[in-house]
Amino acid sequence: DQQVKQNSPSLSVQEGRISILNCDYTNSMFDYFLWYKKYPAEGPTFLISISSIKDKNEDGRFTVFLNKSAKHLSLHIVPSQPGDSAVYFCAARSAGGTSYGKLTFGQGTILTVHP
Amino acid sequence: DAEITQSPRHKITETGRQVTLACHQTWNHNNMFWYRQDLGHGLRLIHYSYGVQDTNKGEVSDGYSVSRSNTEDLPLTLESAASSQTSVYFCASSERAGSPYNEQFFGPGTRLTVL
Question: Which end of chain B is more exposed for a tag (fewer CB within 10 A), N or C?
C-alpha cells in the first residue's frame, strides 16, 4: 500500500515557466512533509519542507503548499531553470510511536526544464 | 566538513554470494537508514537504526541485515544475493528522533548488480 504517491512520473516545462509537482498521501498520522531533489549518480538532497500545521512554506524560487483536507501537497518552482532538471521525491514523516523520524517516499517525478 | 560516504560505489556479484555495503557518516547523527531505489517504487526503506545496538526492519527488509556497533557506521549485508536485489542503495542519516525537522542526509549511493 503506497502511502505517498506521486502520480506523474515525468514533467516537462519551458525555462522561465512555473513547474508544479504534486504529491498525495493517505496516512493522517504524517505530520511533516519534505521534498528532495536528486541528480543522476548522486544521492537525494533536501530541498524544502512543511509542517502539517502550516499550509505554505516558501524558500526563494521554491514554494510548497499543503492541503490537509485533501491530503495533497505540491511543489512550485518559479521561474524554472534548466539546472532544476532532476528527479523530485516527496516524503512524509510519521508523527509518533516507534516509527517517529522515519520518512516514507513517493515514487518520484522526473522534471525536465527545456531552455 | 561532515559527510556521509558509501562504498563501494559500484558492485557486481553473483547470485548466492554474501555482500556487504558500507556506510560511514561523520555528522555524529543518531539515526541511520538504508534505502533502495527502483524505477516505479521511489525510495523504499530496508533497515534503520536510532542508535548504537539498535536496529529495526523497514518495509523491504527480507534478505538484508544490519548491525550498529558505533555511531558512525551502519553496514548493510545481503546474506545470499538474489537478482531481485539488483538496485541502487542509499544510506542516510539524521539527528535524534525528537528533532523537529528530521531532514535526512544521503550518501552518494551504491549501484549493485546481482548476476
Answer: N
